[in-house]
Fold:
Amino acid sequence: MTEGNLPQSGNPTELGRLSQPSILLAGPILRRIDTSQVCIWIACSRPVTVRAKVFRITDICNIESTKYTLDGKDTNIIGVGTDESIKLGEHLHIGFVTARPIVTGMDSEAFQGTKSTFPTDELLAYDLEIAYDLDDLRRKESKCLKELGLLDGKNTIVYGNHKQSGRTEEILLPTFFIRGKSSSPLNLLYGSCRKLHGKGEDCLMIADDMIRNSLTDLAKRPSALFLIGDQIYADDVADDLINYLTRFGMKLVGYEEPINGLDRKLTDIPVGGRQELVRKLAKFTSENAGNHLLSFGEFAAMYLIAWNGENWPEFCHANIGESDVQKDQKKIQIETEQLERAREAMPKIRRILANVPTYMICDDHEITDDWNITKEWVENVKASSCGMQVVANGLAAYWAFQAWGNNPNLFDQNFVDVVSGYLCKSGNVTINEKNVFQNYLWNFHGWTFDAPTIPLTLFLDCRTQRQFDSFQGPPRLINDEGLQSILNLMQRIGYRRGEPLIIVSPTPVFGFDLAEELQRYLASKSNIYKWDLETWSANERGFVRLLSFLGRDLGARHYICLSGDVHYGFTISATFTPLDKVDRFEKNGEKKDFEHQTTNVIQLNSSALKTTSLGKEFLLNEVIGDFRQLFVPTQTVRVGWNDMSFKAKKLRKEDKDFLSFINHKEKGSWSTGESKVVKGEATPFIAPDWIESRSIHKGCFKNKRCISRRAGLIHRLGCLFKPCLPKVVIAENNIGLVSISGSLDKILSHTLHVHKKSKETTEVWETIAELGGYQD
Structure:
């Protein structure tokens, strides 16, 4: 595409950026890291060869000058890897390089030892070199991170000077570490829901200060970042961005992708003019789809601006005034102000992703709101050629920008060939090739993966392997085939029954019950789409099946569940006990029986990183949350039956005798002929099949860290007078930090960090829990 073919933006700076995109469009982003590999992701505007080098910080440190230096020699390299980028568009090439450990002092991949490993609990650094053709004569040029302008200046991805042991050391490369089986705490950052024009500060940037303040203190520095869904909002795009994303996407892929069923070009659709189009053509149900992403290029462009501020347009507010409706003008103005705040945070976001291993799972907004929410939705969209196309485009972008780096071994060469082989043809494809591409992505279910933390982390795919018990009702978020694939994965990687486990589910397994009850009630009065009724508890069969699977089939006796999605943060302790049959497992070659084995769960939730908490979110989060904070019961207990003709019952204080009865260990104590009163109902008593309890923890105000020196004294005084009322939910934008320490990793600290732009502070709310229920 030449400059003359580009839709005119009216902005010289923006047009120049589109005509001559930077060689490095995004990255580097650290992805999967363990003792055998260091994976690094980048996006480039032309084909490149990527070479990664890994160093010990101590090996490249000049002790006398206390400066870390790279002298161009390879004698200090402990890991190296080289790979070619893959083409996904005319100006979109994804580089994914894996550095492997080598024998210290050797310079070539030929010397890589199969038994060599990267050191653990030690600060490591890396550099990248990208090589590419300058012109058609194939004259070569190569650039390292320094030459790409990433080691100093406004775009730096390093943290610079750092004080340690009374002296200042200058760290000149991005760094990371691999946590081993040591006594140091496991520190994990996590969060979800990052809408660029959403209300408030981008709380992901809080991680930048956390890393800077613990740069060489590995007992405090986060060893991984989990992004748990809605890293982009494909269905909810700001008016000031959509035209630019369309133009940028066209430049990336090299053509204007025609959309099935659409009788005009994307560039001919007015701002905000896509709502009715996607409803009629794609059969989507999102209520905020006026600027819904449709082409693969638009999806790719959205990821590139989410991770690199250099890809952003210059806002001229050209849309303001185009509408005669005052509220539309005000809406655009507010969105633009929020976008400017998001862009201010971009250098920190880029630096974070370059310095901490990052694992990502998608939720619905990476594709469209309500994605696979009901059987009705799935059948309607699959019957639509437009819907099939847009979902496939979103999935291809999700793989290229997120999923590939989680575990590259999950995507074989056939997968890469199908996706890249289709996209690199710049639209010159047959109908059959398009159908093959779309069906392949729709039918691919290998998104579940593990992260090599200690304890192990399992990321659940709760979107593409659902089971529907009715046409319009809430789904089981994972079907039996999906659960079996989890079991196969855990067996392959050597998970042992009874070991502690971290589970990542985009939506909470144990949710904030008052909000979920209100959500179910409101959905019953309107519809499931309006109130996003796809919680685990909304389909009790799916909820019980998951918990039974984790306890019985997988053998997890204790796990920590990390989630997001619901736009507030909390901490819950829970237990689940199946009562319908005896649990059996093998230990030391001998079969053992345990009746009614209880699984202990700590449910943690952090959300949203940056989005709007208005309307239904305000009702569910702020009002109900504040009510619950004053009238929160210490514990709720429910019993239920596998026969769904019996409704699960929440026990009250007067049901203590009943609770004691069902806790009997003797199977012979069950009776089916008695009459019991539960919640005031006299019914023939049938022994329940499971019992579940949960307790929500109140978060205590820990501290308020001042960002500005001039504001420090004022805020320190303010902290003295801050009300000491604990909270059960944090409804403001937040990011979570989980720290697990103590004997056998049994003490958990969960802190939710809230950035206050107006007060230049970060508030911290903390809960402490003791983990139990497993043997080392």
The CA atoms of residues 89 and 253 lie 4 Å apart. DSSP finds 16 helices and 33 strands in the chain. The chain has a mean pLDDT of 83. The first strand starts at residue 24 and ends at 34.
